[in-house]
Amino acid sequence: MIKKLLYILYIGMIYPLSALSQINTDRVMTIGKNALYFEDYVLSIQYFNQVINAKPYLAEPYFFRGLAKVNLDDFQGAESDCTESIKRNPFVANTYQIRGFSRIRQDRFDDAIADYRKAISIDPENEGYWHNLVLCRIQKKDYETARVELDSLIKISPKYSEAYLMRTEVSLKMKDTLQAMTDADKAIEIDRYSPSPWVSRAMLFMQRGKYADAESDLDEAARLSMKNAGVYINRALARYYQNNLRGAMSDYDIAIGIDKYNFVGHYNRGLLRAQVGDDNRAIEDFDFVLSVEPDNMMAAFNRGLLRDRIGDYSGAIQDYTSVIDEYPNFIPGYQYRAAAYREIGSLQQADADEVVVLKSQLEANNSKNRNSSSKDKTRKKSDKNMNNYRKIMVADSDESESKYKTNYRGRVQDNNVNILPQPMFAMTYYERKDEVRRQINFYDGIARINEKRLLPHKLLLTNQEAALSEKQIAEHFNSINNLSAVIEKNPDDAMNYYARALDFYLVQDFDNALKDIDECIKRKADFYPAYFTRAVIHYKELEYRRREDRFDLIVSDNKTAQVNSIDYAKIRDDFDKVIELAPDFVYAYYNRANILTIMKDYRGAVNDYDKVLELEPNMADAYFNRGLTHVFLGNSKLGIQDLSKAGELGIYSAYSIIKRFTVKEK
Hints:
34 helices; mainly alpha; two-stranded parallel sheet; disordered N terminus
């Protein structure tokens, strides 16, 4: 979420750059923003440092350096940089936004509130600033002010569903359940294809005891959400209240399948398994709970009961004893331990425990105060009353409200999950590891280049490029210097130009990279990797420049970026040349299909994706993108079929998109 927030903020920023007289300041600033855009945060900071050293009076480099530091979780450093930027230009609202965000992450909500109020004074209709301001009020439990500010936000943006959801929470805190339900209904009316409003209303139904209605809303949330364990945990509770134990256990299974470390899921599933006699698997759940919280005595006691039932009396006694040591007045512990002692023939210990039980019963008969559990079917996670050991666990109030307390954002567009194609492939030296989907991208021609050691590092094909470390950054700057010296002595070797172009590309200096690739092509016109890399760099330049309606991105200094089909045609032409030189190079067809999609030539894109899958039948990215393209063409059935295959091959976000389109069709 943080990365998406910051992506929107810094690209959307319109900074009044003065005309810079020194030769490289503008260019270094642009390279730094390129690096920031493509998530090379350490590299971007180095470029911004250069600009600050050259022209310390500029506000912009401090702002962007602060933005990079936020992405690296250096919130104090980010705050300091934003403060320096504000000193130089106090009229840029987004600088207060980022400083406010940094202060939130340091739990300094009063200071953050001051920043958001200042940002609103500059840009009074910005939903993101109001949103974060209200969340700070909620953190401070200032519900009266939060409600007033939410009223203002709703007047500004009456279609902003998150405002109604936040007002639902605030109304509940103020015991105004009628307003809370009205707002939840309104949020669903506005944004029925988002899971959040359905979950919010379901929680209201749960509080009012309308468990069937809550389950129905959670059914919708489950259909719409990406893999969200919390939705299934909540639906399990609604089913449990309706005595649907099997349905509840099924939901806990799904939740744990999504999040295998889900504590509440394991604990509650253990209780339900015990109720239906699935003792051994219930013990496994409580084993997990105790591995996470060894001092969880309710889990220990429940495991003791289960061990008792399966005849593991020594294990049961061990669990009962740990509970009694912690809670010496917990009489059921003595009762069950006494019975277990008798089973193993330890009569003296059994007698001693039974004496404790007898004394307790006599005292209870003479006392009006009895230590009993409440009649509720559930208990809070923080509840330590051992008499509630059989009750289903629910999250504490603060935990259940955490969604809004942490969901800080910059603009309303963040509210919706983007349906974006899988990215372009590039030739590079570094790849970001994907623990879920470990695919190997191979092509004979690239393997031969690597075998001949024509480049300083092994060349990789990937659409998951990795950011550089400080050591790698320094290495590539040194390589640029070394190759420059080599090229000066021998200006005719095409591979030296290509190698240096890759170095420039990796440090986000696209202009020099393109110059070197052009020189490479002049000397070796049949070298297809040069055309491929040139196309990718041109695409990245356009990606950085182009204005997207949804995000309102503006990236040149006070000028709206102008990108048209001619720009993309140049990229397509380079991929055409790659395919001419290497007709079996699957990644050129894939990248060209992506470009054709941007150019709205969907049928041409489908033809290229078809070719990709003819050459490489298990390429998940191509199935995913072809599926989206079919959907754009109105062929939802074919699109869902492709998305299903992409999900099968490891792109799990495909399933959430399938759910969306399935719901819309209905």
